[in-house]
Design brief:
single chain; alpha/beta; Glutamyl-tRNA Synthetase, domain 3; Ribosomal Protein L25, Chain P; seven-stranded mixed sheet; 25 strands; elongated; RNA-binding
Length: 572
RNA sequence: UGAGGGUUAGUGUAGUGGUAUCACGACGGGUUCUGGCCCCGUUAACAUAGGUUCGAAUCCUAUACCCUCAGCCA
């Protein structure tokens, strides 16, 4: 499943968090107790294949598949493909890939609304025969005008009283392609004066002379969501049809259609969609970011899409845990993106091997270390998991440390290296800075240090302590890599609230570092390999751009950073 | 009220007449060869106003605020 150098995708054993109770589970338990559906639980995830899945869909996926698993039911994957103008096969493929990656399995329950087009047509005919639907020949504009407003009732279409026979014939002609697009639609005959606008003779079928990605040119009329969705649920004997809050108003119509046709009747239950701070989750906005090249594509590591999270280095388990932790309720809410970051740190802390890598190298020469000697130092692979063993790291006279780990004039609470100071090099020796070398502009370009041979391995026999331990890499042995540092794509906590959400894009959302120095073992890292660069964060070899001879690492998330907080406070 | 939903610490969430839950965050401390992890502690909430009740986040009434709906999108 995963290569020798990849980790986490399908094997992560991070224990799933306990699912807190929620109102949907209470409904299901009640239904189980009363035998409403003979103890069955059948849910479905019904994406329209018109875009890539994002973290908000992950919430729905985890909910539907999770609930069905919990109650020994089934969960269907159904593509709601009723609008050929917007949908295509690229999206149906990516959606399946993403659901699988998240760790869910629909088994043989893969369905397409388009598979039901014949039956849906028959249901529409039945409605006409019952005099509960009619063909309206008004234009779209006329229909809009006659719908009324939020406060005023609508008025009846002049075509509302066509006979059953007339409607049947007209609907057949629509199907046969004898009308142009827009010439007429099929409408439910409900009530143009209904206080609920949804119920003012909603459109059931419209004419679209477009090839469909599955049915090709077989149809030129396509059912609307409200007609297709409830009947698809009914056909599949869904028990609990979960959807987001904005469909609450549509439930009245969902129920009306199923009641009118007197068919199997699932119950629709609405929950609040996910909002995440510092990100946008509307399909329209995400597609805009892609099309206007604000990001490199749907799978740009800064995107909240499943494919973006995957490429960034998130594990499926971390996304699932996130979806459990955020809970399910009916009120609009915005989850702090810090929770998502917590979830990936939690997972990777337990599973990711530790490694040393220097992002912004500062050359260090150990003056009293032999010129051509290389020592092998023992390093623990993961202090959280002894079974992950240890490795050898070469140590030699010329090293790199992080530029941030040295200050010529250290402020209070800066524990790292400075002139005359002694620190520990992780798994190696104590070193003391004896000299600072600068270029003409005054920039520090090299440090001269001495090491204490007695501290090999990292402990001083005389018991003396140092306040800091630094990561390092041997210059002559280091592997070079490009490292991409990511931050939030947006600076605004709620970009969608801005006049133009793109104006709140973060200019620093990606920073590319070219000649980073990594410990030599990383030279063979396969794409998808995740690890912790000690003291810096969790990183993942890019699944598209990285190769063993051309390393590219994405920073998934930083480590929690106390020093960064102290620095911030000191600035104030 | 045109109609339908919603409102519990900074954020998310539990609670369904009997001590307001848990998590994230923030803050402080301990531990530490990662300023990580881990451990301990602090912080901080029932939208408002009435009512019922021995007792109300929970039941009732009113008010305020937020969200959704006027696609031949989903």
């Amino acid at each position: 499943m995963s290569g020798s150098k990849t980790n986490g995708d399908h094997t992560s054993d991070t224990s799933e968090v306990t699912v807190p109770p929620n109102f949907i589970r209470y409904i299901i338990e009640e239904d189980m107790a009363t035998g409403k559906y003979d103890g069955r639980v059948v849910t479905r995830f019904p994406p329209e294949p018109n875009g890539y899945l994002h973290i908000g869909h992950a919430k729905s996926i985890c909910l539907n598949f999770g609930l069905s698993r919990e109650y020994n039911g089934t969960c269907h994957l159904r593509f709601d493909d009723t609008n050929p103008g917007k949908e295509n096969i690229e999206y149906v493929n990516s959606i399946q890939e993403d659901v699988k990656w998240l760790g869910f399995n629909w088994n043989d329950h893969l369905y397409f609304t388009s598979d039901y087009f014949d039956r849906l047509f028959e249901y529409a005919v039945q409605l006409i025969q019952m005099n509960k639907a009619y063909v309206d020949s008004q234009s779209a504009e006329q229909i809009r005008e006659n719908r009324g407003t939020l406060k005023e009732p609508g008025s009846n279409s002049p075509y509302r009283n066509r006979t059953v026979a007339e409607n049947l014939a007209l609907f057949q002609k629509m199907k046969n392609g004898e009308f142009d697009e827009g010439a007429c639609v099929l409408r439910a005959r409900i009530d143009m004066a209904s206080p609920s606008i949804i119920m003012r003779d909603p459109t059931l079928y419209r004419i679209r002379k477009l090839d469909h990605h599955r049915t090709n040119d077989q149809w030129c009329i396509y059912p609307m969501y409200d007609f297709a969705h409830c009947l698809s649920d009914s056909i599949e004997k869904i028990t609990h049809s979960l959807c987001t809050l904005e469909f609450k108003n549509n439930r009245e119509l969902y129920d009306w259609i199923l009641d009118a046709l007197d068919v199997y009747h699932p119950q629709q239950i609405e929950f609040a969609r996910l909002n995440l701070s510092y990100t946008v989750l509307s399909k329209r906005k995400l597609i805009e970011l892609v099309q206007q090249n604000h990001v490199s594509g749907w799978d740009d590591p800064r995107m909240p899409t499943i494919s973006g999270l995957r490429r960034r280095g998130y594990t499926p388990a971390s996304v699932r845990n996130f979806c459990e932790r955020i809970g399910v309720a009916k009120r609009d809410s915005t989850v702090d993106v810090a929770l998502l970051e917590y979830c990936i740190r939690e997972d990777l802390n337990k599973t990711a091997p530790r490694v040393m890598g220097v992002l912004n190298p500062l050359r260090v020469v150990i003056e009293n270390f032999p010129e051509d000697l290389t020592e092998e130092m023992d390093a623990v692979n993961n202090p959280e998991d002894p079974t992950m063993g240890s490795r050898k790291i070469p140590f030699s006279k010329v090293l790199y440390i992080e530029q941030d780990d040295f200050m010529e004039d250290p402020p209070k609470k800066f524990f790292r290296l400075g002139p005359g100071r002694e620190v520990r090099l992780r798994y190696a020796y104590f070193i003391t800075c004896t000299d600072v070398i600068k270029d003409d502009s005054g920039k520090v370009v090299e440090l001269r240090c001495t090491y204490d041979p007695a501290t090999r391995g990292g402990d001083a026999p005389d018991g003396r302590k140092v306040k800091a331990t630094l990561h390092w890499v041997s210059a002559q042995h280091a592997a070079s890599a490009e490292v991409r540092l990511y931050e939030n794509l947006f600076e605004a906590e709620n970009p969608a609230a801005a006049d133009d959400f793109k104006a709140t894009l973060n200019d620093n959302s990606v920073r590319i570092l070219k000649d980073c120095k990594l410990e030599p073992g990383l030279g063979s890292a396969e794409p998808g390999f995740r690890c912790q660069f000690e003291r810096l964060g969790y990183f993942c070899a890019d699944i598209k751009d990285s190769a063993p001879d051309n390393l590219v690492f994405n920073r998934i998330v930083t480590l929690r950073d106390m020093w960064a907080k102290i620095k911030k406070q000191q600035k104030k």
